[in-house]
């Protein structure tokens, strides 16, 4: 069965049902309204991003469903990202963030995890100034405020 | 950032994936980043006696107390409430107090904290014995979300009253550590909410842990340290028939007989997690586990450390029969049994703790490691923690005890273990060089910790340890003396 998805910029995408259902949002929509030929509108996702998301879902269409662990701490999960996923995530920063937002909206947890881990790896090991540089962020703290934050969080470092 | 409006959404999604260090850097990046990430820094707070003298911590707690979900108190002081009064949304409270702390102060502080956090508290874990009087029981009964309780009772026997069992009736998880237990569980009492039970009762001569477990029909996890002589058969007779959902069973006992073991294993249903240890080691003949394929396939975690009856052939059998193992701990595994045994099937193994024996063969006047061992180790591509320790006092000198971590002697066979995070080598005859350590750092990019004596010369050992630390890898020396003591004394 094929599902039609419509992106923000009105581009239609035809995908197999099992691929589309990697998105829990879409899965629930299909469960609620039943099988229909009417396209599902995704006003939050542009065609460029939706193309990438569909590519991910197609590659992972046969993955077993993830079991939600009660004590689900993402930091405790294995650190490694699959090679295909790593290559998939080699996109510019803007697209990376768009993919995370889309995965969040569409409720595709594995894709959200991979995207977030990728950003977490970018942040890892960097000083605040280096983080600002990478993400083009303006420092809106006064030097006094910055010093105070550092002092207050000093004791948190060893915990 | 191009899309400043949607930035918070992204940061919130990323938050749980950041390590503590990354969070600490991130809170200084900008005001938005601080606003979003700072609460995550305060989710877990630990306070000890030095912290109570620190005014800036007190002020920080005043501002951020509401974000604290997990609070660990290593000391309780008269100033403690000044620090924790702003914690009103605690999920978990742990007390890890020294025995010298005054009971009254603890009880009054605890009562206040419970009152402030009545609506949200789910877990109370106390490693301090303050007596389970009616006052505390009443306060706990007023915490509607309480689902997990940890009790430690040290000196006198523990008398519990009806209120205590009312609390237990609501719990999902219960942990009791007590030297003596005076239980008066009502005959009719069952605890259908209890799914996880953990009991350490070293001086009880009756199998009280089995008695309580058999009242919990929905038990999923049971872990006992019970030194009565009949715990294994008590579990077999009273727990296994009643607890049909049991998937984790860990038994620490004093000693078992081969009859009690044979009968027990015949009745044991397939388990996800099985562990056993015995205080007194008695050499036994090899016993075959009467497990079906269903048993082997169900096992994900096995812990047979300090388990005298699990001989090498049993250990080898488990490694070559259980395809879903994630962690495996066992006392001894002979290189000869590996070479002549079936290939290991536990390809998902992440943690391996084992004492190898008989790992080398004489060849041309020197010793080389049995290739069969590395051949099997190489199948474990997902290995993250490798803990191979050995120094079994009763082994003769002919049985070598070293798996070599030197290049040219076996280390290069471990290049495949790219996910290795922790390596522990407990043997005392390593002679690693800087070259070997450099190789390890290159080959194992995830390496976080190495423990062991890397060189038998102390100065060399220290130098190699420092080299590891300079490369961001924690290094600790194995305390072999400690191991021998522990081994001989039991627990």
From TrEMBL, chain A:
SMART domains: Skp1
Keyword list, A-Z: Ubl conjugation pathway
Protein's pathway: Protein modification; protein ubiquitination
Gene3D superfamilies per UniProt: Potassium Channel Kv1.1, Chain A (3.30.710.10)
Residue ranges of every copy of the SKP1 component POZ domain listed in the record: 2-61
Record-level GO BP terms: ubiquitin-dependent protein catabolic process
Similarity comment text for this entry: Belongs to the SKP1 family.
Complex formation: Component of the SCF (SKP1-CUL1-F-box protein) E3 ubiquitin ligase complexes.
Function: Essential component of the SCF (SKP1-CUL1-F-box protein) E3 ubiquitin ligase complexes, which mediate the ubiquitination and subsequent proteasomal degradation of target proteins.
Name the record gives this protein: E3 ubiquitin ligase complex SCF subunit
Species the sequence originates in: Lunasporangiospora selenospora
Higher taxonomy: Eukaryota, Fungi, Fungi incertae sedis, Mucoromycota, Mortierellomycotina
UniProtKB/TrEMBL annotation, chain B:
InterPro entries: F-box-like_dom_sf, LRR_dom_sf
Recorded superkingdom: Eukaryota
UniProt organism field: Lunasporangiospora selenospora
Protein name: F-box domain-containing protein
């Amino acid at each position: 069965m094929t599902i039609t998805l419509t992106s923000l910029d009105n581009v239609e995408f035809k995908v197999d049902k099992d691929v589309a259902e990697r998105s829990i949002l879409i899965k629930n929509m299909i469960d609620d309204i039943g099988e229909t030929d009417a396209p599902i509108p995704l006003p939050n996702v542009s065609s460029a991003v939706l193309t990438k998301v569909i590519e991910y879902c197609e590659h992972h269409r046969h993955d077993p469903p993830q079991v939600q662990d009660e004590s689900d701490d993402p930091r405790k999960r294995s650190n490694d990202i699959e090679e295909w996923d790593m290559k998939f995530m080699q996109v510019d920063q803007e697209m990376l963030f768009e993919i995370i937002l889309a995965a969040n909206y569409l409720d595709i947890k594995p894709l959200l995890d991979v995207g977030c881990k990728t950003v977490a790896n970018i942040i890892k090991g960097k000083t605040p100034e280096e983080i600002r540089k990478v993400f083009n962020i303006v420092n809106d703290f006064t030097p006094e405020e910055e010093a105070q934050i550092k002092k207050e969080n000093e004791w948190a470092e060893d915990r | 950032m191009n899309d400043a409006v949607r930035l918070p959404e992204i940061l919130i999604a990323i938050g749980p994936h950041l390590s503590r260090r990354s969070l600490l850097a991130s809170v200084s990046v900008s005001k938005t980043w601080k606003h979003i990430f700072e609460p995550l820094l305060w989710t877990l707070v630990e306070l000890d006696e030095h912290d109570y003298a620190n005014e800036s911590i007190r002020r920080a707690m005043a501002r951020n107390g509401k974000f604290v979900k997990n609070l660990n108190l290593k000391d309780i002081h008269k100033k403690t409430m000044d620090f924790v009064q702003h914690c009103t949304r605690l999920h978990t409270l742990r007390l890890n107090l020294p025995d010298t702390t005054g009971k009254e102060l603890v009880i009054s502080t605890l009562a206040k904290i419970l009152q402030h956090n009545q609506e949200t508290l789910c877990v109370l874990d106390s490693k301090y014995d303050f007596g389970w009087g009616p006052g505390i029981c009443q306060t706990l009964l007023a915490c509607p979300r309480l689902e997990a309780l940890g009790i430690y009772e040290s000196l006198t026997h523990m008398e519990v009253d009806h209120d205590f069992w009312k609390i237990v009736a609501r719990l999902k998880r219960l942990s009791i550590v007590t030297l003596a237990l005076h239980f008066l569980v009502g005959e009719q009492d069952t605890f259908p909410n209890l799914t996880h039970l953990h009991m350490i009762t070293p001086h009880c001569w009756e199998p009280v842990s089995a008695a309580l477990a058999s009242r919990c029909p929905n038990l999923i996890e049971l872990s006992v340290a019970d030194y009565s002589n009949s715990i294994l058969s008590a579990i077999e007779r009273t727990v296994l028939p009643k607890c049909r959902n049991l998937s984790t069973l860990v038994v620490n006992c004093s000693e078992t007989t081969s009859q009690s073991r044979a009968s027990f294993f015949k009745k044991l249903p397939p388990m996800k997690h099985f562990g056993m240890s015995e205080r007194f080691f008695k050499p036994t003949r090899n016993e075959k586990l009467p497990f079906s394929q269903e048993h082997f396939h169900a096992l994900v975690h096995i812990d047979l450390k300090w388990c005298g009856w699990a001989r090498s052939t049993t250990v080898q059998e488990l490694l070559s029969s259980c395809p879903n193992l994630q962690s495996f701990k066992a006392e001894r595994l002979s290189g000869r049994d590996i070479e002549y045994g079936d290939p290991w099937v536990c390809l998902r193994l992440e943690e391996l703790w084992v004492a190898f024996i008989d790992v080398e063969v004489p060849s041309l006047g020197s010793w080389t490691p049995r290739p069969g061992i590395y051949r099997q180790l190489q199948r474990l591509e997902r290995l993250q923690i490798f803990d191979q320790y050995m120094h079994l006092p009763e082994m003769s000198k002919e049985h070598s005890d070293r798996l070599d971590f030197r290049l040219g002697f076996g280390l290069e066979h471990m290049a495949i273990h790219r996910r290795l995070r922790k390596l522990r080598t407990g043997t005392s005859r390593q002679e690693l060089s800087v070259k070997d350590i450099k190789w390890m750092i290159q080959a194992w990019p995830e390496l976080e910790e190495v423990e062991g004596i890397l060189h038998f010369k102390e100065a060399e050992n220290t130098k190699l340890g420092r080299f590891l630390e300079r490369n961001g890898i924690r290094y600790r020396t194995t305390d072999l003396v400690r191991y021998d003591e522990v081994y001989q004394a039991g627990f």
